[in-house]
Amino acid sequence: MKERQDRFQEACELIRMMFTADGPVDYNGTYYQLDQAPLSPGCYQKPHTPIMVGGTGERRTLRTLAMFGDVFNLDGWAGQGMSMEIYRHKMNVLEKHCADVGRDPAEIKKTLLMPLLITDDKARIERFQQSLGKGSMAGPKNEVIDRIGEFEREGVAEIMFGGIRTGDVDSYQRVEQEIVAAFD
After folding, report:
1. Cβ distance 51 to 73 under 8 Å?
2. One-character DSSP codes across 31-95
3. pTM value > 0.70
4. pLDDT for 184 beyond 80
5. Closest Cα to residue 37, out of 45, 27, 29?
6. Distance (Å, rounded) from C-alpha 3 to C-alpha 132?
7. How far apart are CA 38 and CA 8, in angstroms?
8. 140 preceded by cis ω (within 30°)?
9. What does the alpha-carbon distance between residue 135 and residue 76 come to, in Å, rounded to a whole number?
10. Predicted confidence (pLDDT) per residue in 70-85, tens digit
């Protein structure tokens, strides 16, 4: 795991260098080496293409995000669900890492990857939350909308919903019409 995290951090540093360099990049790390490597074509977004870091790891993943990331994607599939308490805790950890590396946490866009189940069936909600963690986004339409609003007020800019089977057009349309439309 340590090597994996070391490689990830080094890769994020290297990618950020390539995204922000005006020309070819030299890099001599433990795992990656580049000699006059160009990024071609270069980033079309300014100041650069945002680097998204997703995960929940407090010691290394969130520190790597503070150092090199632009978008935080907190993973609601990590077995703990996604309660406001978990979100606030992870944001506090991120803010501490940002302070340690001299970065303003407001520079980092906050996003969530959220399992979603819209249902009035209490047994289905309970099974869903037992498998993914309490606080997972499951419940009647109005409760889901209210919870999304809570995260929005806490600074979450985007929520990516998951758990809908590929090809389940009716469920995607329901999310669009009943949930997303509430925020237009």
Report:
1. no
2. S-EEEEE--SS--SSSS-PPPEEE---TTTHHHHHHHH-SEEEEETTSSS---HHHHHHHHHHHH
3. yes
4. no
5. 27
6. 28
7. 21
8. no
9. 9
10. 999 998 877 777 889 9
